[in-house]
Amino acid sequence: MSQQSLIEIPTLTQNDNQIQVHKDKPIKLSKQSSLDHLSVHSIKSGLTYIRDSWKSGMAQAILNMPFHLTIGSSSGCNASVGITTAFIAAFTNGFFSGSNHSIYMPSWVVIGLNYQLVKTYGVEVMPWITIIVGIQIYIAGLLKWHHLSDFIPVYVIEGFLLGIASLFFFSYSDYMFGLTDNHSNRGVELYSSYYDMFKSFSERGDINYFIGAWCVFLFLQMGRIFFRQFPWIFITTLTGLTLGIVYPTEKCLRSAYGEVTIYFNFIEYDGPKFHPDFQVVSHIITQAIPITLFILIQNQFCARAGQSLSGVKCDYDQEIQCVSTANILSGIFGGLPCCASSRMYILDIKLRKTNQWSSILNAFSILFFYGIFSKVFMDIPFYIISGQLLYMIINIPPWHYYVNLYRTQRKLILFYIFCIAWLCVNYGAIQSTLIGSMHALIIFAQKMSLPSAEVMTNQKEGVYQINLRDTNLHEFEEECNDIPPNLEGTYTVYRFNGALNYINIKGHIDQIKELAKTDIFILSFRYVCVIDFQAIDSLAIIIDNMRKNSTQVYVTGLHPGMLEQLSENNIFKEYFINENHMFHQIDKLPQQ
């Protein structure tokens, strides 16, 4: 009927061509719906997004530029590879991202792994590694492994943010003194401690650069406090460009990274060729696994952080497809592994009014600043760059969240956050988050290990009660039907509540052992919702020991399917065969 009414809508004056166009409209709509995940649907919408997003896109290109350069050179390649990867990643992210607040760039957490691979096989291995990483991420996305990040508590993410802010501060502190120690000596241990490093910086560095860096930071921070909507970062950048032209200095980006530009080195077409044997291929596939793991963790943590701090929803499935596509394209065009490494909440952008066009504009800004006009932008003095980095680093951690924890007397959580940040600085960002997540899992397991059960006994002495539902024996029997009729002697009813698993089964067994011995012991599974094989095996052992000690054991309240699950254990299977009168299976679930 609905199709008939749609056909009758056109008037009698319409010709057949108009009717045919009307029939084709649903097909056109279906084609558009398949592209709903893309950012741009028309020129008009694109112009609107450009107007709303140009500030955030260009500002991110300026702020992240030192990271792009450092990652490229520290990975064993060169700074131009980092810039090229940033352009490819940002452009891909603009069309396929699962969030409105992601900025893609080369992954800084895998610099050490990249460097070791380049040291072993040469720079020609990196495009292949990047493609393999993209494929492995896609497979992980099909397996939904990225949803494991949903189980990571917020305080681990906050510790991660504080830790990476500290890492960035220590890594780029040489800029404040006009030095390049942290970026031109990859693989060389120069200082035994951070104290020795800063002592050396103060002895060899320029105090004027140090003062200038903090003045730039204070200017940006005051602008953020009093009028944060204005893009103050552009003022400092234009000032740096002017100073670099009028008063050129050797202490600029060019002295650290040389000449840079964006170039696309199509895999196995331009540049050196990579012709490995089977053993090398198997080795690099194995070596790509930790890179994939690190990128997955970093990408999901940045997504979680951006979502929690900005309030803008992130589609994690779409995000994992985006990072997979970005890595494959980056490898094809000679780039490095990449992922979401920063979020726009640092700039206080109103994210609900922007979309992925900001990332596209970020890509074009990289092309404009460091591709076409790199000779000018690479002359910006270190103290300008350092002041901008200080501004970003200090505003990465959510300080209001820490203050709220302190005010609400959650000082232990605050202590966990600082511990994770300390681990991040000393052992690495991913390692610290894995340790923090493991600690959270242990705390969760401890809380889940507390057994929930109800106990009923007809003994007058030595009664052990846990969450007793009813003290009236007849009502208990009528309600539950867990006590077989005509029982003689003392008995205990132990009714499990909730889930039975490897976490809480030990607590149940300890409670059963503490109960006073009776002639009959009744195990009720009436209110068990989930049970795993390890819990079944542990229960089977305790039941077998009871029977050997002349205690009659009854099993009641078995739900449909639970009998089959218990029978997978040989002790339970033998029990059900030989003592079929001592267990009871119910036909339906209890009424809630």
UniProtKB/TrEMBL annotation:
GO terms for biological process: transmembrane transport. Its main location: membrane. CDD domains: STAS_SulP_like_sulfate_transporter. This is STAS domain-containing protein. It is found in: Membrane. Residues 493-592 form the STAS domain. Pfam families: STAS, Sulfate_transp. Keywords: Membrane, Transmembrane, Transmembrane helix. One of its GO terms (cellular component) is membrane. It is a multi-pass membrane protein. The chain crosses the membrane at residues 125-145, 151-170, 207-226, 232-249, 357-374, 380-401, 413-430.
